[in-house]
Structures are given as C-alpha cells and as structure tokens.
Amino acid sequence: MNNKLEGKVAIVTGASKGIGAAIAKALAAQGAAVVVNYSSSREAAEKVVAEIASAGGKAVAIKANVAKAEEIPQLFTASEAAFGKLDILVNNAGIYEAAPIGSITAESFHKHFDLNVLGVLLASQEATNRFGSEGGVIVNISSVVAQLTPPGIAVYSATKGAVDSLTRAFSRELASRKIRVNSVNPGLVATEGTHAVGFVADVENPTSPLGPVGKVEDISAIVVFLASDDSRWISGQTLTATGQLL
Ligand code: NAP
After folding, report:
1. Closest ligand 1 atom to the C-alpha of 16?
2. Model pTM above 0.85
C-alpha cells in the first residue's frame, strides 16, 4: 500500500468488473477509500471490495444504475454516508455494442447515450456539487474510438466523442473551483465486456503493453496519476493509451 491518495474518497462507476474494478483496486492501493459502484453484478462488486479490504484498503459496494438520472443522487448520498466526503469521481461505467449503420436503432442510440454521456454528465454535476472547498478530480474513461472512428461502431464512437467534449468543456468551467477534469482514452483492453462481445479472445492472457491488446492495469495506473497531485497542473486533457496503435 502506498499513500498518494491517503485521506481521499473516490467513487468509481461500473467498478464490479473490467477496467473499473482495476481502477477501484489501484486507487485503494494508494490509500483512497473507494466506492465500488455496480448496476447488477453485486457478487462481483463485493469481490472487488473484499480484495481491497484484504490488501488493507477501504471500500464499499453501492448499487446504482448510472444510466438512470434518478439513481445518481442516491449513489452520491450513500457514498457520503459511508465515507463522509468526496474528492475523486471516475466515470468509467460504459457500454459498447457493434452495429453498422443499417442496424442502428433509436433504442440502441438512447441506451448508449443515456449511460456513456448523460450518466457522465449527471454524475459530474453531482460530484461538483459535493466536492469540498479544496476542489476535486474527475477522470472520464473515454476511448480511442473517439478519434479512430472505426467502422461498425459509430454510435459508441459518438458517445466517446461527446465525453471528450464534456471533459474539455467542464475543465474550463470548473478550473476556478480547483476541479480538474481529464479523460483516459484506451485502445482495446481485455475485460469481461470485450470478451463477451467477441473483441478479445483471452482475458487472462492479453498481449504485452505495447501489443494490440492492453491489460486493465495499463489503464488503472494512468487513472491513479490523473487522480493524484502528480498531475496537479493537468486538466482538460484526453490521454490516449493504446500501446502501438496511435
Ligand atoms: P465491462 O468489462 O463490460 O464492465 C462494465 C462495468 O460497468 C461493470 O462493472 C458493470 O457492472 C458496469 N455497468 C454497466 N452498466 C452500468 C450502469 N448502467 N450503471 C452502473 N454500472 C454499470 O467494461 P470495460 O471493458 O471494463 O469498459 C469500461 C469502460 O472503459 C467503458 O466506459 C468503456 O467504454 C471504456 N473502454 C473500454 C475499452 C476496452 O477495450 N475494454 C476500451 C476503451 C474504452 P454491472 O455488471 O453491475 O452492470
């Protein structure tokens, strides 16, 4: 256990699996008390909490569907009840479904935008209302697809383009309140999610960091940097992490 985030409180949305689970563990390993948010995978979230506790850290699991506006305040209220304050928000929860133009529906558009964009926006709003006078940090998990815009996944790419715009816009609005806003834009990372949709064959053995498929820890290390004072003069940035891709 190190202490870059000693005394800090962090909420990580969508932290029961994948990149979010790794971020929760990495923040806790630096001394932060962490809220492990999930929407349906309670057992997986409790497992992340147990792993953090057994490594000497502090965490609680809190259920909230971040795609539902009415559930977002409850997440922050429950977090405050558990840890008393808020310093760091990591907007990680997100979905991605491939669909070429002919298969895009209004329903899939709203499903993606409600979680990947509106969820980020409303959680950021809630966090900025709750950060103390010393300010706070927001880290958005965007994606390299915002720049690469690969074929067959336009709606998802559009959500991440919107996330990057929110990152830049909010960083400017919030700088005077000592709130920094940055995003990490990963390339393909081996997770439960990318395995489920067939993007990654082997979650346990992705290729090396400079190969085409990253590990969740390649992203969580960047989030620790952006959440800590080591990045105190960085805001409004989109940090692309893709190994050799871009
Ligand atoms: P994942 O393995 O599918 O895990 C998704 C996590 O989000 C789970 O903990 C899930 O919990 C939670 N979640 C889903 N819907 C939610 C909701 N409505 N409210 C709250 N939590 C919700 O995903 P991932 O691959 O780690 O991706 C995480 C983030 O990284 C996403 O924003 C994604 O766009 C971004 N990203 C991923 C990659 C990649 O290659 N993996 C690359 C670039 C960017 P429940 O099971 O409880 O719902």
Report:
1. 9
2. yes
